[in-house]
């Protein structure tokens, strides 16, 4: 039996289950909060920062990731305010310039209202979302890949740069990687990253607002339906 | 060596939370974390190799490569930076002909930089084999390195 708590997201009163995150509760009610690193069956680590919301408490507001924020009684959450959307657009801009070679990331950036990224394209092909690392660790208990290095040098790597025996080549890491979904015009060459934005017309439905989820195929596995 | 690893792991087996303490002891006794040591620690504590490797890689206190006989640590914290750590680093790099974090070909020196060693009043600080040398200047650093080299040549250097 779930213990329920009442909270308000974007003015809608919803009933959350104690122990679940704000993001999970919102998705269950069809309130779309853009997200990338979140996966229903994995521990949330708040890596991509896309799911930021405004948590209003005692008249003060605090922007935090909804995937790591547990529901509480009487919570007031703003997931789509001007401020949150602005911050989220900036995060999406950073993500798309870091790794433009992915339709999933291009789509998310477009939906978050990016029009012309102000940052230099790095084309690193990894946004350190950690989906691969966590799937390997939590789904398969293989611990074959992990984050190595710190700061700018942080990257995903095998221990000692060699494929360990625990890797059974299940390729879950590849399947779950946002980079596995190539842009519509084919993979980008290294150093030639660009912001696509071609499907802007598709997402500009009459009531379309940046941050809304129109639930097209936002890269298989990256949609807002809350299912895998 | 294998014996010492056994001693370190004594009473700590199957206790994953002891990971960092064990790695610190291994680093202290062996001078670096060898692949074999990491494999043994991983097996004994019940922590996946990836996790041990990740932790060993994250903290600058751990090194995965064997280090030289003498370890020179240059502080480049704010205070040291302001009071002239950069000329010191350049001096040391030039004198030893190595990059940051590298060991000289003859295995005598390892040059490391750290972000702060917490003795800002003594800035700029250079640590040689655990001994702090405060208020360093490029000239004094040169003298220090030359002294160690001379001692090594004469065979009077202490390990």
Structure description:
- The complex is a heterodimer of chains A (228) and B (159).
- Chain A has a domain at 8-84: Ubiquitin-like (UB roll).
- In chain A, 22% of the residues lie in helices and 15% in strands.
- Chain A has helices spanning 22-28, 82-98, 103-111, 131-139, 172-175, 200-203, and strands at 4-9, 12-17, 52-57, 60-65, 75-78, 146-148, 155-157.
- In chain A, strands 2-1-5-3-4 form a five-stranded mixed sheet, sandwiched between helices. Chain A has a two-stranded antiparallel sheet with strand order 6-7.
- In chain A, helix 2 (82-98) packs antiparallel against helix 3.
- Chain B folds into two domains: 2-58, no CATH class; 70-154, Glutaredoxin.
- Helices cover 47% and strands 11% of the residues of chain B.
- Chain B has seven helices and four strands; from the N terminus they run H-H-H-H-E-H-H-E-E-E-H.
- Chain B has a four-stranded mixed sheet with strand order 2-1-3-4, covered by helices on one side.
- In chain B, strand 3 (126-128) and strand 4 form a beta hairpin.
- In chain B, helix 6 runs parallel beside helix 7 (138-154).
- Chains A and B meet through strand 6 of A and helix 4 of B.
């Amino acid at each position: 039996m779930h213990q329920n708590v009442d909270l308000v997201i974007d003015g809608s009163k919803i009933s959350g289950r104690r122990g679940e995150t704000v993001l999970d509760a919102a998705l269950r009610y069809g309130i779309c909060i853009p997200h990338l690193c979140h996966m229903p069956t994995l521990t949330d680590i708040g890596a991509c920062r896309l799911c930021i919301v405004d948590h209003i408490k005692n008249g003060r507001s605090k922007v935090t990731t909804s995937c790591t924020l547990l529901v509480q009684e009487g919570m007031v959450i703003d997931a789509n305010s001007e401020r949150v959307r602005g911050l989220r657009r900036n995060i999406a801009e950073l993500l798309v310039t870091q790794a433009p070679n992915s339709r999933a990331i291009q789509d998310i950036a477009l939906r978050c209202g990016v029009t012309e990224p102000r940052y230099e394209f790095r084309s690193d092909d990894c946004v350190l979302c950690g989906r691969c690392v966590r799937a390997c660790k939590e789904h398969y208990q293989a611990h074959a890949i992990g984050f190595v290095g710190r700061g700018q040098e942080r990257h995903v790597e095998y221990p000692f740069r060699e494929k360990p025996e625990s890797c059974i080549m299940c390729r879950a890491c590849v399947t779950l990687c946002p980079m596995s979904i190539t842009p519509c015009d084919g993979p980008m060459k290294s150093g030639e990253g660009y912001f696509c934005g071609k499907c802007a017309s598709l997402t500009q439905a009459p009531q379309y607002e940046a941050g809304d989820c129109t639930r097209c195929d936002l890269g298989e596995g990256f949609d807002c339906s809350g299912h895998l | 060596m294998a014996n010492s690893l056994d001693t370190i792991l004594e009473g700590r087996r199957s206790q994953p939370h002891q990971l960092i303490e064990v790695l610190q002891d291994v680093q202290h006794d062996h001078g670096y974390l060898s692949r074999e040591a990491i494999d043994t620690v991983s097996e004994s504590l019940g922590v996946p190799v990836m996790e041990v490797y990740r932790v060993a890689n994250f903290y600058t206190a751990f090194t995965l490569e064997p280090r030289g006989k003498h370890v020179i640590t240059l502080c480049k914290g704010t205070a040291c930076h302001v009071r002239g750590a950069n000329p010191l680093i350049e001096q040391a790099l030039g004198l030893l002909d190595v990059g940051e974090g590298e060991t000289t070909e003859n295995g005598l020196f390892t040059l490391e930089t750290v972000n702060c060693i917490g003795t800002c009043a003594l800035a700029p600080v250079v640590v040689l084999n655990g001994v702090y040398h405060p208020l360093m200047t490029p000239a004094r650093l040169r003298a220090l390195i030359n002294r160690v080299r001379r001692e090594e040549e004469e065979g009077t250097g202490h390990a």
